Structure to design on (637 residues):
């Protein structure tokens, strides 16, 4: 049973490689990509059930035992993210069938998409710091190509920024890894955690922790998000939805993993610092979201606010805070994919991304309009939709940890989200219908499936959180108790 | 005026054979000594690039009709599938096995599944590096 945890990483990888060999068979690629992602989804559901009954799953590659081998570790937190990733990926790839041009499809779009997914899932499942770097590079390389594919001037301009800032943060990541190895002499998460718990987290280690925080903050869009709005708004909708839903979440996952498993000894320095960055992120992101009139810019600034809010839950570092962060992380992946897909369809229909030039879409596209409304309510966190429960727990967590300012900023940020997203809704859907259905630049044919699936999930998660509640509880229990992770990795071996 | 490159052509024909032979030697040495798929692949690339430089791209493409992008993908695929082989046999992913077998003429030879993995690495390296060089060379506007 332990063996299946490698499948979510290698299935998309193998499929992507096969797609390169079958370059001209677009139909085969489409079918196979959905089949692969569904297989990943089913595998991760199996893993979740198994972890809930028997504890954390681990596998040592090549059977070299921990801490010498390279481990793949699936605890509940990772597995929930893998499941959500596969669902989002399925929806985005279905959306891509209708919206991606033939040239992109012929230039390895599906292969790159699956490499990206493989990198994301690998980052969630790896139990080794260096392999985290490797999987980051896998997903980044795929994303570099997906941003530039098409070669428009604006794409290349944003891609330059995106590539440079990510290379810079990758270099800092390597520096951090080198420091870590020189301090602890190991790169396995579990072993680092043991070594630091033995030796104590002194000032030097805390400095290294801050270095890692900066690295992952760039990837997650925590405070250092200035590259994000540009590069997420230039690629085609299916790609930017995947970026918004998954790429920043990998950074958030890495921060949560590092600061619950390894650097949890000095929360009054590191976690409060994360809290300050989260608060600044929410404020700046909120200002960005209300300031723009381009629909893509507004949505990308909402991604930034989401990042700040999730990490507010980590900054609280209480059971409720992390519970909220986990719920909100899952919700955020779904809802960001959904809102980006709908935003993409709006731009596609009206042929403009300026809110002032569109109006009255609700008459010609009622379903799209109401689904956008549902997504907007969920994004703001109105019950009974999926954003609500995460917001409640994160706010409660920050209040419990006496970080009242953080909780209040989080709630105020929700108001900014409300304003920005209602601006989109009112301008795009209300008012006089400017374009009749014949005059529109595109149609909604074939794209509604993906949007409906995601809308259904956000409603289902809101109405029935009991379905995932036992799993989220298990996830948070493991996050709050690093010993569970360590015991699972070493599996009774001596810890050298 | 056509440049006189008889010496270059003659030396290249000889040298590329030596380079390819040496790269195979490096590849085989890699199991226990310095060498392996990566180095072997790079040396092979050096030989191919030398051919491209001495002759021209069209001639070499006609004589070595390989799609290097495909070669790279195939190489990675071979390596990953070698890892999956371990899973199929009920072992861990990337688990390797080896055995000593008597082969006529060569005597007692060690056969390891790691060689298959290394072949994949070599293909991936050759494919990637030749594609990079070729795409740079096509860029002369």
């Amino acid at each position: 049973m332990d063996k299946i945890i490698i499948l979510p990483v290698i299935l998309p990888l193998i499929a992507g490689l096969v797609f390169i060999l079958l370059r001209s068979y677009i139909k085969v690629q489409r079918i196979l990509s959905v089949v692969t992602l569904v297989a990943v989804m089913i595998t991760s559901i199996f893993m979740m059930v198994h972890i809930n009954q028997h504890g954390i799953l681990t596998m040592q590659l090549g059977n070299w035992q921990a801490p010498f081998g390279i481990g793949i570790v699936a605890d509940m937190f990772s597995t929930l993210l893998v499941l959500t990733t596969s669902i989002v990926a399925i929806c985005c790839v279905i959306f891509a069938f209708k919206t991606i041009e033939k040239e992109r499809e012929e230039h390895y779009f599906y292969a790159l998409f699956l490499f990206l997914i493989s990198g994301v899932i690998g980052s969630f499942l790896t139990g080794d710091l260096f392999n985290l770097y490797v999987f980051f590079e896998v997903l980044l390389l795929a994303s570099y190509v997906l941003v530039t594919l098409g070669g428009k001037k604006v794409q290349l301009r944003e891609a330059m920024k995106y590539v440079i800032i990510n290379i810079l943060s990758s270099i800092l990541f390597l520096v951090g890894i080198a420091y870590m190895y020189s301090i602890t002499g190991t790169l396995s998460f579990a072993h680092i955690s043991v070594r630091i718990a033995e030796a104590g987290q002194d000032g030097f280690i805390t400095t290294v922790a801050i270095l890692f925080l900066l690295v992952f903050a760039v990837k997650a869009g925590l405070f250092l998000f200035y590259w994000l709005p540009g590069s997420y708004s230039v690629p085609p909708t299916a790609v930017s939805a995947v970026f918004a839903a998954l790429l920043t979440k990998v950074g958030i996952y890495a921060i949560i993993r590092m600061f619950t498993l390894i650097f949890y000894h000095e929360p009054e320095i590191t976690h409060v610092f994360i809290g300050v960055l989260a608060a600044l992120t929410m404020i700046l992101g909120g200002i960005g979201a209300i300031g723009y009139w381009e629909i893509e810019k507004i949505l990308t600034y909402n991604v930034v606010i989401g990042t700040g809010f999730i990490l507010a839950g980590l900054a609280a570092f209480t059971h409720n805070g992390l519970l909220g962060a986990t719920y909100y992380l899952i919700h955020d992946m779904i809802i960001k994919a959904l809102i980006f897909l709908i935003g993409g369809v709006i731009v596609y229909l009206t042929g403009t991304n300026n809110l002032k030039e569109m109006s009255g879409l609700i008459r010609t596209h009622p379903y799209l309009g109401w689904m956008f409304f549902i997504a907007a309510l969920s994004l703001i966190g109105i019950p009974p939709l999926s954003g609500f429960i995460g917001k409640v727990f994160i706010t409660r967590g920050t209040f419990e940890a006496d970080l009242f300012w953080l909780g209040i900023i989080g709630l105020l940020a929700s108001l900014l989200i409300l304003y920005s997203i209602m601006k989109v809704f009112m301008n795009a859907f209300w008012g006089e219908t400017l374009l009749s259905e014949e005059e529109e630049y595109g149609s909604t044919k074939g794209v509604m499936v993906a949007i409906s699936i995601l809308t259904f999930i956000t409603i289902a998660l809101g109405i029935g959180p009991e379905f995932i509640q036992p799993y989220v509880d298990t996830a948070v229990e493991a996050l709050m108790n690093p010993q569970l992770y360590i015991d699972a990795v070493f599996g009774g071996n001596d810890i050298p | 005026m056509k440049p006189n490159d008889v010496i270059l052509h003659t030396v290249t024909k000889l040298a590329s054979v030596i380079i390819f032979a040496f790269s195979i030697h490096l590849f085989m040495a890699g199991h226990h000594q310095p060498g392996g798929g990566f180095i072997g692949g790079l040396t092979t690339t050096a030989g191919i690039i030398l051919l491209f430089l001495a002759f021209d791209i069209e001639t070499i493409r006609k004589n070595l009709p390989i799609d290097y992008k495909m070669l790279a993908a195939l190489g990675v695929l071979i390596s990953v599938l070698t890892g999956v082989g371990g899973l199929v046999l009920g072992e861990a992913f990337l688990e390797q096995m080896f055995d000593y077998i008597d082969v006529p003429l060569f005597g007692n030879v060690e056969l390891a599944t790691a060689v298959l993995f290394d072949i994949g690495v070599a293909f991936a390296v050759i494919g990637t590096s030749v594609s990079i060089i070729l795409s740079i060379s096509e860029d002369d506007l």
